[in-house]
Design a protein that fits this description.
- Chain B: GO terms for molecular function: metal ion binding; oxidoreductase activity; quinol-cytochrome-c reductase activity.
- Chain B: It is found in: Membrane.
- Chain B: Keywords: Cell membrane, Electron transport, Heme, Iron, Membrane, Metal-binding, Respiratory chain, Transmembrane, Transmembrane helix, Transport.
- Chain B: Component of the ubiquinol-cytochrome c reductase complex (complex III or cytochrome b-c1 complex), which is a respiratory chain that generates an electrochemical potential coupled to ATP synthesis.
- The complex is a heterodimer of chains A (285) and B (434).
- Chain A has 285 residues and is mostly helical.
- Chain A is 42% helix and 4% strand.
- In chain A, strands 1-2 form a two-stranded antiparallel ribbon. Chain A has a two-stranded antiparallel ribbon with strand order 3-4.
- In chain A, a hairpin with an 8-residue loop joins strand 1 and strand 2.
- Chain A is globular, with a radius of gyration of 25 Å.
- By secondary structure, chain B is mainly alpha-helical.
- Chain B has two domains: 243 residues, Cytochrome Bc1 Complex, Chain C, CATH 1.20.810; 115 residues.
- Chain B is built from 18 helices and two strands.
- Classes of the chains: A mainly alpha (285), B mainly alpha (434).
- The interface between A and B is large, with 59 and 54 residues.
């Protein structure tokens, strides 16, 4: 049996080696064929791991960055103002926040559409009236909605990392990607690479070597009132964390419930194991 | 094993009253309490029970999800997000259901591999095996259609690719595809019929499971030695022996299941499915769910024409052939010995086959280009060779190891070899480790 296992391991190794070679062929710095060019940077997130929780101050800062910068182009259709209480805001603060938005409602009893201030039950209003308008104002491609972006982007981890990820519980592909993209504009394209007119080189972009979005963040662009550094790096971290919350608002609840479930199941399994041993004690099997 | 003599004797008046009119308690007693099972079953035999609870879990969570889901292309995506955000514990229901599908397949693959290793398909269990293959086929249809319902990018494009297979069939192909889609492309009629069928098929699975269990209770279980039960000492009563062992297996399985639900619920999914379906934007790589990847690799491995069969039809035939070949396994294996425990060569080829399937799965997730194609072709060749060449030929030329005379003898021999008191963990599945 040991021999079989050893030969299996050998076969597996040869296959993996072959695959690794296959991954690396046709690699050229000037004309890469696989994107992103760089794997995302790995950030330490407060919400990672089995006991992860959102850092509310960070989410509030992230909301500020989204509101003052991103929301000029990116909608967030699925997020309701009422859920902002998760960020540590009071009901009154949420009401005031919502009221800053103008919502088109109606028709009223006269059959007319009318505008009113936003209510907590309303959703973030999109920056463009429709997809076509969004595309027309942005060179033909509508900026993606942000409600789920932190779960809708993930760079492949590759073999064997994706197996280790199960044990390290790595599930932060999305925020890592967003952070890397936002802080990845600094690098110069390698010699010989052609960058299309009107696009910006970013080796962390998943869809190609450059993207239409210009570097959106600059130092001191958004004023923080809690003393956090006003740098691109900090903005990128905060907005990535905020977008993770927007995509997965029940993450804390999930992990908390998960801990209870795991404790219960492991205790239950232990008791069941003891019972099973007892039952089978006098039966050779 | 279960035919005839029922040992059920109702002790209460109500029990006797029922037994004379509709002997349901007798059926339950005979099937789940007194039913004799081989005493040497290892933990690989707990996957039948695990699969039953997974089916129940999928149906229960699925019915509740259906109460909140809207199968309309305009709102399907946002109705799923409503479940995730606004429905009480909706995130839990949906993650249980989505990961439940994956774990259902993990369990069924282990269950099938168990059957292949211990020769559980061999006479008299051919029908039992075929019913299992039918369940697997229904599961694949259900899983595929379920993946379309959230109406994400992979839902849409996966549906487009998979229904596109049918156009490869000569003459009637286009007609079949249009029937499946309810139009010329994946659209609202497709989503609606997939939802209806996704709700229907699990109940058909439940029906075939009843037949599967019925057939099992007629032939009795196979066991790690592959030797038929010969005397009463070969067996123990289902309750408490098998029930407690199954329960332990189930709970341990649930620990793995819960780990994924609560800590990495999106690990087994594709990020693109969190982008709403867009018929005008094709994803860079269209990949099906992980549990279809080996078949996807086989489909794409056929890149050449074979006589009148072009590569597209060839790929589709190879893919369906990879599943169809399972149905005839009972007649492909010519060996007189069931269990791989006593078949050293079969055991080797079996483990290579297992690695080959995992390798095919990984290749299915890669783009079909360069050396991946050649590797997929070699792996596909082995997949079919295992069934069509190795199984029939090996049975004729292999010299099996000496078989014990009975299950009891095998058990006593093993216990003698391993010392008087066996640590439970080691005794659990020594056959797997050989």
């Amino acid at each position: 049996m040991k021999k079989i296992l050893a030969s299996l391991a050998a076969i597996g190794f040869v296959m993996a080696a072959g695959a690794a070679i296959a991954q690396d062929d046709e690699h050229s710095a000037a004309e890469p064929t696989h994107f992103p060019i760089h794997k995302p940077k790995q950030v330490e997130w407060s919400f990672a791991g089995p006991f992860g929780t959102y850092d509310k101050a960070q989410l509030q800062r992230g909301l500020k960055v989204y509101k003052e910068v991103c929301s000029a182009c990116h909608s967030m259709d699925l997020v309701a103002f009422r859920t902002l209480e998760d960020l540590g805001y009071s009901e009154a603060q949420v009401k005031a926040f919502a009221a800053e938005y103008t919502i088109e409602d109606g028709p009223n009893d006269d059959g007319d559409m009318f505008e009113r201030p936003g209510l907590p039950s309303d959703y973030f209003t999109p920056p463009f009236p429709n997809m076509q308008a969004a595309a027309a104002s942005n060179g033909g491609a509508a900026p993606p909605d942000f409600s789920l972006i932190a779960k809708a982007r993930g760079v492949e981890r590759g073999f064997p990392t994706f197996i280790f990820d199960i044990f390290t519980q790595y599930a932060e592909n999305g925020p890592d990607y967003i952070y890397s993209l936002l802080t990845g504009y600094d690098e110069e394209p390698p010699a010989g690479m052609e960058i299309a007119e009107g696009t910006h080189y970013n080796p962390y972009f998943i869809g190609g070597k450059s993207l239409a979005m210009a570097p959106p963040l600059s130092d001191d662009q958004v004023t923080y009132d809690d003393g956090a550094p006003q740098t691109v790096d900090q903005y990128a971290r905060d907005v990535s964390a905020f977008l993770m919350w927007a995509a997965e608002p029940h993450l804390e609840d999930r992990k908390k419930t998960g801990f209870r479930v795991m404790v219960f199941l492991i205790l239950f399994a232990g008791l069941m194991y003891a019972t099973k041993r007892r039952v089978w004690a006098n039966v050779p099997h | 094993m279960s035919e005839g003599h029922s040992t059920y004797t109702p002790t209460t008046g109500l029990g006797r009253w029922f037994d004379a009119r509709m002997p349901l308690p007798r059926l339950v007693y005979d099937s789940f309490i007194a039913y004799p099972v081989p005493r040497n079953l290892n933990y690989m035999w707990t996957f039948g029970g695990i699969l039953s609870i997974m089916l129940v879990s999928q149906i229960v969570t699925g019915i509740v999800l259906a109460m909140h889901y809207a199968s309309d292309t305009g709102i399907a995506f946002s109705s799923v997000e409503k479940i995730m955000r606004d429905v009480n514990s909706g995130w839990l229901l949906r993650y249980m259901h989505a990961n439940g599908a994956s774990f259902f397949f993990i369990a069924v693959y282990l269950h099938i591999m168990r059957g292949l290793y211990y020769g559980s398909y061999k006479a008299p269990r051919e029908l039992l095996w075929i019913l299992g293959c039918i369940i697997y086929l229904l599961m694949m249809a259900t899983g595929f259609m379920g993946y379309v319902l959230p109406w994400g990018q992979m839902s849409f494009w996966g549906a487009t690719v998979i229904t596109g297979f049918f156009t490869a069939i000569p003459v009637v192909g286009n007609w079949i595809q249009e029937l499946l889609l309810g139009g010329f492309a994946v659209d609202n009629p497709t989503l609606n019929r997939f939802f209806a069928l996704h709700y229907l098929l699990p109940f058909m699975i439940a029906g075939v499971v009843v037949l599967h269990v019925w057939a099992l209770h007629v032939t009795g279980q196979n066991n790690p030695t592959g030797i038929e039960v010969k005397s009463k000492t070969d067996t123990v009563a289902f309750t408490p022996y098998a029930t407690i062992k199954d329960a332990l297996g189930m709970i341990v399985f649930l620990i793995f299941f819960a780990y994924f639900i609560f800590y990495m619920p999106n690990y087994l999914g594709h990020p693109d499915n969190y982008i709403q379906a867009d018929p005008l934007k094709t994803p860079a790589h269209i990949v099906p769910e992980w549990y279809f990847l080996p078949f996807y690799a086989i489909l794409r491995a056929i890149t050449f024409n074979i006589g009148p069969i072009d590569s597209k039809l060839g790929g589709v035939l190879a893919m369906f052939g990879a599943i169809a070949v399972l149905f005839v396994v009972p007649w492909l294996d010519t060996s007189k010995v069931r269990s791989a425990v006593y078949r050293p060569w079969y055991r080797l080829f079996f483990w290579i086959f297992l690695v080959d399937c995992i390798f095919l799965g990984w290749l299915g997730s890669r783009p079909a280009e360069g050396s991946y194609v050649i590797m997929a072709q070699i792996a596909t060749l082995y997949y079919f060779a295992f069934f069509i060449v190795i199984m029939p030929v090996l049975g004729l030329i292999e010299t099996p190891r000496r078989l014990p005379n009975s299950i009891t003898e095998a058990v006593l021999e093993k216990n003698k070899a391993g010392g008087a008191v066996h640590p439970e963990g080691a005794a659990a599945s020594p056959e797997i480790r050989g």
